[in-house]
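Task: sequence design from structure.
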């Protein structure tokens, strides 16, 4: 899938749309989800044009991949989530119901999150 540079997270990265920032470095930006599904619901996005995890890991530099995953850990740590625990999740494509076509990792916490998925 080609990257759509008009997607909402691209606009947030360019500063065209505001976000409630949690963490930022040269590799990643983290901000609170606009429609939280848990008391803590934060998104971490890489700085670059990547649609999905497969796209990112195939196309990004090793430095960016490392920096991005460090930023995910740093965001969770900075939110104080290490002790109580948290869940990370990334939706890719239609089956996963990915709404925004820019790779993002969700961080959920702030309550007991229950089982990972409901049974199908
Ligand atoms: P997906 O379903 O693609 O994994 O998740 C997209 C997430 O982005 C959703 O949880 C949705 O609430 C969030 N979202 C969509 N538009 C915006 C926005 O403009 N700002 C923020 N902060 N989050 C957004």
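Answer:
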């Amino acid at each position: 899938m080609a990257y759509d540079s008009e997607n909402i997270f691209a606009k947030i990265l360019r500063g065209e749309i505001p976000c409630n920032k949690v963490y930022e470095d040269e590799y990643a930006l983290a901000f609170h989800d606009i429609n939280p599904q848990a008391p803590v619901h934060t998104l971490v996005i890489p700085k670059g044009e990547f649609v999905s995890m497969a796209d990112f890991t195939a196309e990004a530099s090793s430095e960016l991949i490392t920096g991005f995953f460090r930023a995910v850990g740093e965001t969770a740590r900075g939110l104080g989530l290490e002790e109580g625990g948290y869940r990370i999740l990334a939706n890719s494509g239609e089956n996963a119901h990915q709404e925004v076509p820019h790779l993002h990792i969700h961080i959920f916490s702030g309550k007991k999150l229950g089982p990972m998925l409901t049974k199908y």
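Residues 8, 17, 19, 31, 33-35, 91, 97-100 surround guanosine-5'-monophosphate (CB under 6 Å).
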